[in-house]
Amino acid sequence: MSTREVYFKSIEDKLLLLVHSIKVNGKLNLLDGHLFAEAFFAQFLNILYQYHLQGTNRTKPNYAAIDLVDEMGKIVIQVTSQITRDKIQNTLMKSNLAAIRDYRLQFVLITEDAGRLEKRPYQNPSEIHFSEKTDIIDITRLLADCRDADIAILLKLKNLCDKELGSNEPPRYETSLLVEVVRLVAKMQVSPANGVKIPNSFDIQEKIDFNELRSIQDNTISPLQLYNPELDGIYESFALEGTSPAIIFQKLVSVYQNQ
After folding, report:
1. Which range marks the domain in which residue 42 is found?
2. Of these four, 45, 240, 242, 244, which has the most CB atoms within 10 Å of its CB?
3. Does 170 map to a domain?
4. CB 164 within 8 A of CB 40
């Protein structure tokens, strides 16, 4: 599976889980999830479309029918889980939209498919910029745009989804397993590799930057630092038993270079 596919699949799973959660909570009249979704989608759209959205409670308190606004790009957005033509039409009929008729009005619908709403005609008395073909955005549309996005954008979106909606962390290995691995290495009988080279010391961050790995550092390299204290403790315990950690490292180097 390619890196792009891994990132996309993670985003897809989180968005569909969010849709399901809000749908279920809506049936139970639990609306807190919808309020949190507004803040999440503001960040999501800012990354995906390079918008500059903020919640209207920060800029225009109690702004009727509008949840998010991008003053720079002149875009206003309503985030809703009510997937009906009436919901969209009622918003378009709001008299306050006449004051921002030079803005574009978009709807982010928390559902997998809202294609049927793109085929219905709408009255737009305020003449705010709006097209039912392009400005009704459901999760399927968001995922299609994610699929075509630059991989750096995909990584940012994946990280956002992980932070906001929960991360699928790989299971941590038990310390006892690490002990067993090191113990087996210590017992290995290996012949020294020909021309064993002693690596030069280096700055870890410089090495990451030189190999252009910074984009994956947060999700791969950095989490592995958690294991360093455990390994240090294991090596110390071996030293107390009379087995030098240096011997273990030499065997690892010999096996690696022979391979």
Report:
1. 3-165
2. 45
3. no
4. yes
Read off the pLDDT of residues 38-65 as tens digits, 9 standing for 90 and up: 899 999 999 999 999 998 876 565 477 8
For strands 75-80 and 68-70, give the pairing: antiparallel
The structure tokens 């749908």 sit at 23
Three-state secondary-structure class, residue 55 = strand
Number of structural domains the chain divides into: 2
Domain final position from 165, 198, 219:
165
* Residue positions counted in the chain: 259
Average pLDDT, the chain: 81
Domain boundary among 112, 147, 165: 165
Mark whether 236 and 111 lie in a shared domain.
no
The answer to the question of residue 27 being in a domain is: yes
Rg (CA), the chain: 27
Residues 108 and 29 in one domain: yes
Question: What strands lie across the sheet with 68-70, from one edge to the other?
Answer: 54-55, 68-70, 75-80, 104-109, 136-137
Kindly state the tokens that stand for 189: 């009988």
73 pLDDT more than 80? yes
For 117-176, the pLDDT digits (tens) are: 988 889 999 999 999 999 999 999 999 999 999 999 999 999 999 998 887 655 454 556
